[in-house]
Amino acid sequence: MKRIYQAANNIEAHMLVHLLEQEGIQAHVEGEHLQSGAGELPLGGLAAVAVADEDVDAARAIIRDWEARTAEKPEKAETARANRSIAAPIVAFIVGAALSGGFVWSRYNGPAMAEKGDYNGDGKTDEQYIYSGSRLVRIETDRNFDGDVDCLYEYGTDGLLKSASLDDDFDGRMETTIAYGNEQPLEQRTDYDGDGSADVVATYVFGALQTYDYMNADGSRVRRITYNGSKADRAELDLDADGHVERRYRFDKYDEPVGESVEK
């Protein structure tokens, strides 16, 4: 396998994988997960698209065509945003101080509008940016081009990212939610079996993975992996969920468990 494209994020990487597969080229995302004793854990900024060596030239040609078709859309969106930002002060000046309060309100709470993108050219919306006035409210993305939103980002009135919802198995249910503070992840909860309770809970400090917990349906913790610099450092297991840790071990530089201790 050979990497042919460094994606801006996991969303873009998955879009391109599905685009290539529609053209008969098998592809997958590399660098999306950290392989460790904790299982597959998401990492940001490392996602790349890889294909078999014999498909490199064809895959690159498809991606170049996709880039050419989508290049004009961000420019048009940026022009529209620039026009709105230029027009706003002019209108405020004309209307005067007496109406400035109402103008500010309408700027951030005005009629809803959306900017839409069709990345694979099938005539269907693959991603849309939804605004209230000029304030970004939500981003909806269909990563696998099946017509259903499987990635949702929501923004607060301060313009900052507040939460994300992900359907990573593309079954129509958002099993993962991520809470953000200052646009950094704080907590990620995933409900794999759909019973309404989280099966795994990850916490972050300053955007860096801190703990990864495996949970029972009653909310008790079975296993905790603690991280240091996004690397697995140590694990604690409470397999009978009685609140008492029975096993502890650390991880070596290859993320293999070492130095296990068993407590009675």
Walk me through this protein's architecture:
Keywords: Membrane, Transmembrane, Transmembrane helix. The chain crosses the membrane at residues 86-105. This is DUF2007 domain-containing protein. It comes from Povalibacter uvarum. InterPro entries: DUF2007, N-reg_PII-like_a/b. 18% of the residues are buried. This protein starts with a strand and ends with a strand. It has helices at 10-22, 56-70, 72-95, 100-109, and strands at 2-6, 27-30, 33-36, 39-42, 48-51, 112-117, 127-132, 135-141, 151-155, 161-166, 176-181, 184-190, 200-205, 208-215, 221-228, 231-237, 247-251, 257-262. The protein has 264 residues and is of the alpha+beta class. The protein has a domain at 1-70: Alpha-Beta Plaits (2-Layer Sandwich). A hairpin with a 2-residue loop joins strand 11 and strand 12 (184-190). The protein is globular and about 60 Å long. The strands form 3 sheets. A 13-stranded antiparallel beta sheet has the order 6-7-8-9-10-11-12-13-14-15-16-17-18. The longest helix is centred in the first third of the chain and has 24 residues, at 72-95. It is built from 4 helices and 18 strands. Mean pLDDT is 80; it is low at 33-45 and 83-108. The chain is 23% helix and 39% strand.
